[in-house]
Structure formats: structure tokens, C-alpha cells
Amino acid sequence: MRVGFIGLGVMGRPMALNLLRAGHEVAVHARRAASLEPLVEAGAASAATPAELAAGSDAVITMVTGTADVEAVLLGADGVAHGARPGTVAIDMSTIDPAATRVIAAALAERDVDMLDAPVSGGPHGARDASLSIMVGGRAEVLERVRPVLDCLGTTVRHMGGHGAGQVTKACNQLLLLVTAQGVAEALVLARRAGLDAGQVREALLGGMASSSVLDFFGERMVRRDFAAGIETRLYHKDLDIVLRLAHGLGIALPAGALTMQHINGLHGQGRGRDDLSALITVVEALGAGDAAAHGN
Fold first, then answer.
1. Could you tell me the domains of the chain?
2. What separation in angstroms does the CA of 165 have from each of 76, 88, 131, 137, 160?
3. Residues 39-63: pLDDT tens digits?
4. Which end of the chain is more exposed for a tag (fewer CB within 10 A), N or C?
5. Which of the residues 170, 192, 202, 263 is marked catalytic?
6. In this structure, are residues 263 and 182 in contact, taking their beta carbons and an 8 Å threshold?
7. Neighbouring residues of 62: CB distance < 8 A, sequence distance ≥ 6
8. Is 170 a catalytic residue?
9. Model's pTM, two decimal places?
10. What is the mean pLDDT of residues 225-235?
11. Distance CA 116, CA 90 (A)
12. What's the rounded Cα separation, in Å, for the pair 288 and 256?
């Protein structure tokens, strides 16, 4: 299949490379020439604009930062909508606002372009290993047309419902991930303040009901104090903002999500938006620093 790919960052680049390795005919577009080079060297064609990219593609994947970016590359001047042929499928794998997704899908449908919202979970290692979990919103028959493409990117491809359903599922994923990361940070701080080895406590917890991928991956980084970015905290901030706005619109209170957002805001206030999510532990530590000093810990 001829696949266009827009967004060649920490997630998009390995995903596009996996499509090439699987034998798909891939063309890429990026604002920076340096982002294109590894893909072109691997055999991808390059396009000057999203519209040019779409003109030669059966499906166009977008993996960009936020809602405004998706709107720009799909509907903006020289966007995908202006070059795509009827029947082209736009697959947005970014994490964006579900309501905006529905509006974009309707605008593309007016041009006979189908859209799927297909955000992912699995992080950079999942993108590299083609082991992503892909949550898909849109028409089921459109998903089946492009399933051979998505199967090259993830081990789980699940249809969740109509347009926006993939993004709502991703919002649930991010809420659970982030609240769990907050819990891991608190548990490890508690262990240290009680005089235990936080690494040993983490290993013990991994053998029981509290075990999770978040405890395994981010907990290990918290223990090692490794705050170099995998996916930057500023992106989780964007995702949690989507979650909380969605909940507000539905009249739902998410107290744990709101607390976690306060702590992520704290990292931003310290100029640490590019740190890894594991840096949450430093916010928890700072909250108890006064009490710990008073008790001689």
C-alpha cells in the first residue's frame, strides 16, 4: 500500500521505518529537512507539502503533537484534504481532542476522504518494536481497508466505535497511566522515608497485585533518578488537559486526575516540561520535605 507519513519525531520515525521494512511504499513530509533524512536514506520518498504527499498515497498517517497541528496538516493550506483523492484514508495517530476529531472527520468526509482516529499506547519502545496498542475510532469497514498498515505498527488493533472513540479511549489510557505514575511516586517516597530501599520495594510490589507496566517502567526510572526524557512531561500535560476537559464536558469529577495535573503543572513551573514523567517523584518529595526535616529524616 502507498502510505504517506507526517510527523517524524520520537514516535513517528520508528513507525515509518517499520512500514518501510514491511514492504509498504512510504512517502514522508516534515517541516525540518533533518527529520526526513533517516527515512529518505531508508528508501522513503519525500513530499514538499501534505497535499503533495496525499496525492500519491492510499492512506496518510499523521503523528504530530496536538489538535492544532492535526487540523493544520489535514485541513490547512496545502493540507492533506487539498491533495487527497476520493477514497483516501487519513489515519490520525496523534493524541488530540475527541470533539475536534469529529469535526475534522466531517470536513474530510465532504471531500470523500475517510478518517480514522487511531491513537497509540506503548511509548517509543512500542513504536520501535511495532508492539503498540492502537485504539481506533471511525467506520469499521475503513479500518479493515487499512488494517494491513496498522498491523505493521502494533500487536493490538481494536475498533472502539465511531469517530472520536479512539481518542476517548486514549484519554482513559492517559488518565490511568498518569494517576498510576502519581501512585508509584508516592509509594516509593513512602518507602524511602520509612528507611527502606525503594528499589527492593519496587521489586517486591512487581510480584503482587500492585504490579503494572507503569511501576515497572517509570518506577525503575524513579529509583535510578533517571529523568531524561522518553516522552516529555509537557506532552503528558497536554494529554491530561484533554482528559480533564472531556470530563468537565461530561459533568464528571476526576479528583485523582486533577491532583496529578497540579503536580505536572509544578514541573512546568520549574521549567522541567521536557523531563521524563518519572520526575513526578521529585514533586512528591518536595511536598514532604518540611515534615521530613522536622522528624530528622
1. 2-162 (3.40.50.720), 168-294 (1.10.1040.10)
2. 24, 20, 21, 5, 6
3. 999 999 999 999 999 999 999 999 9
4. C
5. 170
6. yes
7. 6, 7, 70, 73, 74, 80, 90, 91, 92, 93, 94
8. yes
9. 0.93
10. 90
11. 6
12. 18
pLDDT (mean) for 219-234: 92
The 3-state secondary structure of the chain, one letter per residue: CEEEEECCCCCHHHHHHHHHHCCCEEEEECCCHHHHHHHHHCCCEECCCHHHHHHCCCEEEECCCCHHHHHHHHHCCCCHHHCCCCCCEEEECCCCCHHHHHHHHHHHHCCCCEEEECCEECHHHHHHHCCEEEEEECCHHHHHHHHHHHCCCEEEEEEEECCCHHHHHHHHHHHHHHHHHHHHHHHHHHHHHCCCCHHHHHHHHCCCCCCCHHHHHHHHHHHHCCCCCCCEHHHHHHHHHHHHHHHHHHCCCCHHHHHHHHHHHHHHHCCCCCCEHHHHHHHHHHHCHHHHHHCCC
| Mean pLDDT, the chain, whole residue set | 95
Strands 89-92 and 114-117: parallel
Q: Are 290 and 193 in contact (CB under 8 A)?
A: no
* Residue at 279: amino acid letter: A
- Report the distance separating Cα 169 and Cα 61, nearest Å: 19
Which cell is 106 given? Answer: 466531517
